[in-house]
Structures are given as C-alpha cells and as structure tokens.
Amino acid sequence: MEIFYNILGEMLPLYIMMFLGYLSGKVFKVDTKSIATLTVFVISPVVFMLSVQRMQFSAGAIWAPLVIMFLGIGLSLIVLRITKLYMGSKTPYLSALMSGTSNWGYFGMPIAFAIFEPEIVALYVLIGFGTHLFENSFGIYFISRGKLSPLESFKNVFKFPVIYSIFIGLGLSYFSYQLPILDDDFFQYFKGAYVVLGMMIIGLGIANMERFTFDFKFIATVFAVRFLIWPLIAISYIWFDKNVVTLLGEAFYAPLLLFAIMPMGANNIAFAAKFDMNPGKASVAALISTIFAMLYVPLVLNFVM
Fold this sequence. Notes:
This protein has 305 residues and is an all-alpha fold. The protein has helices at residues 2-27, 32-53, 59-83, 91-99, 108-115, 118-145, 150-157, 162-174, 184-207, 216-245, 253-260, 267-274, 279-304.
C-alpha cells in the first residue's frame, strides 16, 4: 500500500487548490469565465509550447498524440450519437467533449512527476497532447454546435491558440532550437500557474452555480466513459501494440494507463462557460469525478504499478 499513500499524498494539494477556488468564488465572487479565459488563452499555450520544445523529436512524439486524438474523436462521435437518444439538445455535445478529454494535466502531471522517471513523464506529456489536439479541434467544434451552426463552430476551432502553440513547439523541437529568453525559470512559473488555476477552476465552477444540479443520466454516461471505457481502451491498445504492431513501445504503457484513469477535465468547465453550454453540469461532473479519483486513482495504480 506504499504506492497508494504516496500517490494520495501527492494528490491532496490538488484538492486544497480546488477548495481555494470554491472559497474565492463564494467570498470574493471571482468570475469563472475570466480565470478560464486566462488559463485557456495565455497560460496553457505557453506551457505546452515550452513543454514540446524541450522534448526530443521522434516518430513516437508524433504517433502517440495522434493515437489519443483519434481514439478521442471516435469515442466522442459514438457518445454524441447515443446520448442524442436520451438527453436534451445541448447536453449530448457537452458529453461528446467530456468523453474525449480528461484532467491529465492539472491533476495528472503532479502524479506523473511523483511516480515516473523524467523520461517517462515526457512520454506521459506526449500522450496528453493528443487530448489537447482533440480538445482544441473536434472538442471546440462539439461544444460550439450546441448553439452555433456547423460553419461557425468550425471557425471557432481556429480561434484558440493551444493547437498553434503545440505545432510551434514541435517545430522548435525538430530544429533543436530553444528560445533563449523563455528559460527554465520562466517555464516553472507558468507550469505552477497552470496547475493552480486549472484546479481552482473546478471550485470556481461550483461556487458560481446558482443552484447545485445533478443530472443523473449525464453523470452516469460520462463516468462510464471516463472510468470504465477509457481504461478498457488503454488496456486493449497496449495488448494490440505489444502483440501486433509495436508502434508505441513498452515505455509508453505505464503513462498510457495513468492517462486513462484521470478524472474529467477542468477545461471542460472553461469551454462550457465560454459557450454557455451548461457549465453547471460540467462543474458538477468534474467535481464528483475528481472526488471519486481520490480513491480510484491510487487504488488502480497500487494494483498495476
């Protein structure tokens, strides 16, 4: 049980950040949209550009994110089609977004740093970039479609900077060029802000709700996808990669399993708030899944690590 307690210890500060976000919303009336906009448009692009820039460019660096992105696209399309049968007009699009994303960054990266060697952490980050590629392309399209036309939703994809920052980082990595001004200290400042603000968004989302609404169908759907289907997909892909194609390699297997058991993404709240797409539902789902992850993640890792 040593792994269980070590991971739980690494996770506790994340819950404190989430609680501080809730207090900030209740006491100081901090607006979720403002923090979400700062995180999505400023903090995240810098963190991911500098992270990718520091990685060694390789075929795996391209293939790993693409695997996760296409898995997210396929799963979200299936969820969208199914949930349209029993949910309201907007909620299926929110379900599709949340099915292809997770809190692998704000929540998962501190855990990855605690249990993996630095080179394995880099592979975990590569896997997570697939989520950001999905989130900032198809994810934005899905969440926009709840109230906008297909063309307007498609245009929205190009208004978010994270996807550009990832490709800039890949270009810098390919040419082995490091921006001299943006040194390690600069990166650490932004990485810290990224984790703190990301976890606080969950608390802010709950604090800014007019009333606590629990949509059982929605919660049950996204829970099943996040904590059952994604782990099964990861296990199945690891078997397929190990026995059939060997595209990723064994070094990717442990970070892929960690990625697959993360709770729902805090950025979902940011996107839902920006596009007025049931941010209360996104906040409740993210909160409950994050609380559930307090025991779920250490228990799973205790058995597989």
